[in-house]
């Protein structure tokens, strides 16, 4: 499923295992995990209920810097983000913004095509590894 550059893949495992796999894949592929935000825990702290919703901010300078050299405004969308979330049916999903869409959004798609293609391929491979297979 893709909506305005947002790519979502259903995971074949639950939210905890999906999140653990994501952290492992990021590390294995040499990406830095800058932050992990548990929105459901934040909601619980405010006395509210929210299904699993966990945001990961990650990347590396070799990928992001060429995009920011093309246009610094893309820094609002970097580092990259991935969201592990659970829908009302209990299915777990992994969602992320396609880097090519981000470049289009900031008007540098033509000049950053090689970089965004590589980033998109890497994110696609990470997402497939994280969401495929069973326990």
Automatic annotation (TrEMBL):
Residues 37-99 form the DUF302 domain. This is DUF302 domain-containing protein. PANTHER family: INNER MEMBRANE OR EXPORTED, SLR5037 PROTEIN. Gene3D superfamilies: TT1751-like domain (3.30.310.70). InterPro entries: DUF302, TT1751-like_sf. It comes from Bradyrhizobium septentrionale. Signal peptide: none annotated. It holds the Pfam family DUF302.
């Amino acid at each position: 499923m893709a909506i305005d550059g947002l790519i979502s893949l259903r995971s074949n495992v639950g939210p905890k295992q999906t999140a653990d796999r994501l952290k492992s894949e990021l590390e294995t592929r040499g990406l830095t995990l800058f932050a992990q935000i548990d929105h459901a825990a934040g909601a619980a702290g405010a006395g509210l209920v929210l299904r699993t919703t966990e945001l990961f901010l990650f990347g590396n300078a070799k990928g992001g810097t060429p995009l920011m050299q093309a246009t610094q405004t893309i820094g609002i969308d970097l580092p990259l983000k991935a969201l592990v979330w659970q829908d009302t049916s209990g299915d777990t999903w992994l969602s992320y913004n396609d880097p090519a869409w981000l470049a289009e959004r900031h008007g540098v798609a033509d000049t950053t095509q090689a970089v965004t293609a590589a980033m998109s391929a890497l994110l696609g491979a990470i997402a497939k590894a994280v969401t495929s297979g069973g326990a």
